[in-house]
Amino acid sequence: MLRSLTRGRALLQHSRRGIPQVWIVAAQHRWASNLPINTVVLFVPQQEAWVVERMGRFHKILDPGLNFLIPIVDRIRYVQSLKEIVIDIPEQSAVSLDNVTLNIDGVLYLRIMDPYKASYGVEDPEYAVTQLAQTTMRSELGKLSLDSVFREREVLNMNMVTQINQAADTWGIRCLRYEIKDIHVPPKVKEAMQMQVEAERKKRATVLESEGAREAEINIAEGKKQSRILASEATKAETINQAAGEANAVIVQAKAKAQSIHMLSEVLSQQCGSQAASLSVAEQYVSAFNNLAKQSNTILLPANTGDVTSMVSQAMGIYGALTKPEAMKEKLTMDAAYPNKSQLVSENQIFHSET
Length: 355
Fold this sequence. Notes:
The protein is α+β, with helices and mostly antiparallel strands and about 350 residues long. Helix content is about 60%, strand content about 20%. It has ten helices and eight strands. Strands 3-2-5 form a three-stranded antiparallel beta sheet. The longest helix is centred in the middle third of the chain and has 83 residues, at about 185-270. The termini are far apart.
């Protein structure tokens, strides 16, 4: 048995010599053991599926571990790897929606889910999936503009996976994910994109600068507004306080004047009050006469300016004229209370007789 295994390995190496190295690298997962020879007793590695044909027809798929086959009748036709396979999608050119030529490449991650379909559904599953990924990428890029390609790479990757799985389901292959590696644009388009980016940055800088200037002007205006409001409130409070002070002063002066008048009336009602009033009027007249012609050169004087006695008599006459209505008012009040004067006299006599 060891001799047969050694001979099988020699034949395997000899068969690989005639195959191009590039094709071997591209299909290394599919041809993991490169069709082992039937040695009756076979050991299948983990995560591999060996498809066995009996007399030219599909017989079974060998599970990992120990397996037995009939020599000559059974033959291992395909060896499929059940591991996740990574395929490098070569760079290809595509035209976007806005007629920009792009060179794009990517990486495809897939796994064989059904070894039977992968063996008999398509001649070379990996090559078929690679071609499908390229054509699907061209189709998806034709639906997007240049800006959308850079902005929606995740959406583009998801659409790629969905389209590949729909077509590769009959091959027993499932695409796990697709990732875009590089996107190359023409030099002129790249320069235009750089200019666009610079213009956008300048625009943002200008907008930010203008917003800063606007905020500064608003802050200055708000400061002036607040200062004016505070100044007006201070002026208002000052005016109110000044008016209140003046009002209080007027009230105090009025009270003082009322008290002085009251006191003067009491003094005048006493004995010798008229003589005191005459003396006060004479003093005021002399004082006013001393101040004549001090403020202005043009003055009007009565004919008897030097006669103090006549001036005092005139002032007292005015005072007497003013006091006469009060005396008349008191008399009228007494007449209204006692219309019959004889009754008032009899009452007084009765009062005196009783006393």
